[in-house]
Design a protein that fits this description.
The complex is a heterodimer of chains A (497) and B (147). Chain A has 497 residues and is mainly α. Chain A contains 21 helices and two strands. Chain A has a two-stranded antiparallel sheet. Chain B is mostly helical and 147 residues long. The chains are: A mainly alpha (497), B mainly alpha (147).
Amino acid sequence: MEAVQSIFSGFAVALTLKNLAFCFIGVLLGTVVGVLPGIGPAAAISLLLPSTLRIDPTSSMIMLAGLYYGVMYGGSTTSILVRIPGEAASVITCLDGHEMARQGRAGAALGIAAFGSFIAGTLGVIGLMFLAPTLASFALLFGAPEYFSLMVMSMTLVTYLSHGSVIKSLMAAAVGLILGAVGLDTMTAKPRFTYDILVLRDGLGIVPVVMGLFGISEVLLNVGTSTPQEFLKGKIQGLLPNRQDWKDSAMPIMRGSVLGFFLGIVPGLGTIIPTFLSYGMEKRLSKHPEKFGAGAIEGVAAPESCNNAAATGNFVPMLSLGIPANAIMAILLGALTLYGLRPGPLLISENPAFFWGLIASMYIGNVMLLILNLPLIPVWVQVLKIPYGVLYPLILLFCLVGAYSLNNNVGDVIIMCVFGVVGFVMKKFQFEAAPMVLALVLGPMLEDNLRQALIISGGSFQVFFTRPLSAAFLAVSFLALVLPLFKLRLRWMRSLL
Amino acid sequence: MTKSDRWTGPLLLLFSLYVCVESTRLGLGGISRPGPGFFPFYAGLVLAFLALAQSLLSLLIDLEKEEAWENWLSILFVVLAMFAFALFLDFLGFVVTAALFLGSLLRGVERRGWLFSLAVALLIALASYLVFGRWLQAQLPSGILGI
């Protein structure tokens, strides 16, 4: 009953004209970012972040959160129409979505993606509403060892589930941990790896680093590789899915939502991997698996619902534990600290108006997105026709201004540029940036908890294994590290034969 | 794994050894009272171990050929333009630097006409000044020209 009362007070916060406006700006920008292939949610949120510092925290977070789940709506549009995923969580939608479009069923595909996203987003918010406060009160029992082990688990999971080489992902995470140590040591105030450079004293700012790794590097990869885009000719008709479409998609949407939400909660999983699992599950459950890849509506409905539910699920550990599930949540976590809020299990009980206002705004935002998406699809198609050669100088300029206005300091701009090059080189050499960012954010927290736990236990590592929760987290991490070794061995032996 | 891993492994190994040496200098402290260098030292050690494994593996496994580096001149141009932006921003002021940045990219990389590049660059620079500087009230530098 308490949740019901609280959510009404949340609506009172979210329904003010100001917060409605911020919610609208957020979801609108999110959709645009989702539609445009060159720029992802991480870059967009970091871009917007400096300008939100002057607004109150609740409105800011309403807008940034709206941007994040708005991206999940917009991403499907390009996947379906031009077979280019607007952002990574819509990669799998390309398979059946674009095939449907080629068969003249683009309208139904876009429609089911929007409705599926709406249903999943709303279910996800309900889950978030009930789960986050419960988890937060449970997390009050966590001590330094539990936090340490939980963070180790999220880092190993993100490497275990990465697409490329596990060793490379682990290396990226290790580099992230080292980069996280840059700046003044929290316990002794001794400068580490700062080389008398003033901007490094407070550590590497997460925002310029992420803007570089995800924004700038993406642009650098796209520069010059101008693949002529193939546009769908003719008008898009019939956005409303018919009765048969609904019958085929109802269960996949429900399954995708549930799967996405629960996978989204696990720190380290993000939104991309759940969509692949959801697609695979539908294919296995289907009575006609041969239709997958040839324009099956289930292949659009399930992953598109899944990524929305996962995006909402991502907020659970961020808001209740102060632990980011992926790079974007890491930025939002950084934003919370910049706004002067203290992330962690007390966040919800200390700032009820903030938390419930945010939750209520998510219900509203999902309705806005549904209304926004269906009639505006022709507009998005036009947006896609802006030549990239004109678009990317603009994206770069926005990033440069964004980095500068963080602290009115050129130092942050240089950090961003350096990490833009680093991110580009990493992508070229097939290193993943996500584990590095996660480690960079978790690093300082990880270090604090490790040192505290060791001081309390008098230098005994046993404390991590004798406390049951901590031991469980470490066991999962161990499995995530060991399982790929067996795969590697098999592949290695095969390559020798 | 790709051919580049033959030398990214050793390179990261060198980096990790450097981190370990620096961390020792910062002070490792005891295990019951870890010092400032404790955490980066062990992170460096883990990296060293991984980099070593990577280097050895790259000698044993058949490596794939990686994708070619296309348009690297354009990419270099863009990177240099960004660093130039950072260097000249405080001196020349936002509007001038932004216009130069956009113009050089449109003309230099995208090979648009002089007139088009100039007009679009000025227009966007002014518009972004209005949006960021005036509307969002970011403190953009005005530089020696005072604009």
